[in-house]
Amino acid sequence: MSLVVDGVMAKLQSYMPRQIGDNRRWSTAYVEGLIEAADNAIRERCELNVISVEYPLVTDQAVYDLTSSFISVTKVEFSLDGSTYTDYLTPVTLDDLDDFHYWWRKDTGIRPKHYSLLTVPGVPSTPASGSGTKGDPSRILIYRKMGAATNETIKVTGIGLPNAGFEVASEAVQSQCHVPYCLAIMKAVEDPALAGQYYNKFLDGCDIARASALTLQAEGV
Amino acid sequence: MQVTYKKIKDMFYESVRDREDVQALFQADQVAFWCNKALAELAESVEYIDEEIDTTTVSGTGTYELADDQMRINRVEVDEKKLFPTTTQKLETMDPRWAQRTGTATRYYTDTIQGADGTLNIGLWSTPSSALDIKVCVYGMANVVSDAEETECLQVPSWFAYNILFSMLSDAYMAETNIQNFQAAQFYRILFDDAARRLRIRSNSRLPKDWAYETGTQKPGRAIDRMPLHIPSP
To answer: What's the distance, CA A96 to chain centroid?
Structure first.
């Protein structure tokens, strides 16, 4: 187990001696970008990295911005005191909410029961431009919004990306997934057929990494 | 983890063995064009950005123009209540004098009022007789990138951002230049299309709809027992 950027860089250096670095064929910044792209692709395909983020609820506010580290949201929990999570929010669409009550946006309560997601998870905030909410990040909408919030909190859990600079992965995953991905991108121009082979190795590596991690959680073992 | 346009642009130039310069094979505005093309293609095919446009109705005005970078209307609310979609043909059938009716809007239509410039228009029926808050929910397009704001991050999911680079590289190697390479262009395009397909699935199934219950507890009495064990995976 090592930091992805360090471990994969060392492995790529061994595949391409004296080709990565200042005034060489590939700059360090470029290869680090590829390693980050590979890590993102692997974490999206394998769905093994789970993150949780807490959001304190605010009086009369139904929509909250989600951090862009999320790839998907799997569960949302609710806490009255901000520390003990005793309840789960169930996912609904806005059409479901219309069926609950035609004026659901006005409803307030003492604890939310449902949530919905606006914009696919993972979109970061960008400067507003044009009209409407353009530039907004991914958001979560809760129903009912709090009539009077004190310590109430929701905890959003899902598949996500680790914090920048803290990505770690086993040596096997780095060799089977990160390295073939980077080599595929780097070889695509001079030898597209070889790049295709590397990319297939990357796909196989992701399947192996996902399967081996999930096998450890087999039923009752 | 947020990827800026500058990062993508720098990686693009290094990939094609070029540098941002007046002598560059691909000028900066061409690169920005390819990036915006990829963002537009993604927004149109994936529909991953939900935008809400708030405006106010004007007494006696039945149609309202939205911006030109919105893909499709998926919901309209007036005074925070949902309006039902309809068509002008249905309105004609229901009431030949429908266009003269005024009052509180209960339905909206989008046919027969769209311009040739790509700007979305929305029609309310009945024509509002007073000022009301209107909220139009649309599938929108990501913010366009430009060299003037190159340090802003791309408005795509963080895990997806580098795939925008692959679309740009595909366009670059497809162009008629001395580095033209159809096979490389095709390879990069496959990477982008594959990731876009995965994003589409994630966008369509962003809410976990498959609920699993633990053995023997088909209908748990408490909400705490109801945990989504997985989401539908691509």
So the answer is: 26
